[in-house]
Design goal:
Layout lengths: L6 E2 L4 E2 L27 H11 L7 E11 L5 E11 L3 E6 L7 E5 L2 E6 L2 E7 L3 H6 L7 H10 L7 E6 L2 E6 L10 E5 L5 E8 L2 E11 L2 E3 L2 E3 L2 E6 L2 E13 L22
Antiparallel strand pairs: 1-2, 3-4, 3-17, 4-5, 5-6, 6-7, 7-8, 9-10, 10-11, 11-12, 12-13, 13-16, 14-15, 16-17
Length: 267
Amino acid sequence: MIIRPLRVAASALALLAAAACARTPVVTSTPAPARQVGYATGEAVVAAMHDRYAGRWYHTVTFRQKTSRLRPDGTWDVQTWYEALELPGRLRIDFDPVSGGNGVLYARDSQFVAANGRLVRAEPGINDLLLLGFDVYANPVARTDSLLRRQGFDLARVHEDSLEGRRMIVVGALAGESRRKQFWVDADRLLFVRLMEADPRDSMRVQDIRFVNYQPRGEAWISPRVEIHTGGRLVFSEDYTDIRTDVPLDESIFDPTPWRNPKNWVK
């Protein structure tokens, strides 16, 4: 669900997980003055998000994901991924067929990549979308603030905007700073809805990632669709089905070795 576009080849696994890497986009425009939004800092926004759903957010999620990536020739590559989250900070993705042993794991502030059932790469890595869309409701506020700074968000820059008729609070940029790394929060529901930053492949273009079509899950929420737009064009999407919250998960599935685990939730 919350990982940037990636390509799986038969002979090897080539994984682009740019969501785990911090970048500092270049700002070329002169920012307009920010409007007062009731939040002086990003830390205040994070605290409000956390406190709104404290004790009411789910702890685990599993789902089947249809992953669609736009090819250079204009056709779509469609894959199936199986994902399991345990909050905070743990996300396992198995690529179809699960028997192939290919996937990626986020745990312990690190990213692990598996190919053919073996761990082939391990490196520090935070997934921005996991952090903002899920962990913000489970982590202590101070830890979320620390991780956001590590990921390159300037929590001193806050302004108000709107998206599809809804009032938004923007953290990480002032008005007009479209290529500065920033996240947007629905001001009424206090849900993460958008991440904007310079495209990692072309810093002159803006990459726009959105959580859309939020659905209630008890007193919490989940977005069953994620979209990535680059240069105003949809280039990647994720659609979730068979979504289940607060399901029991065996702790061992969040250990990258061995990758093929008989206790995996995917049957």
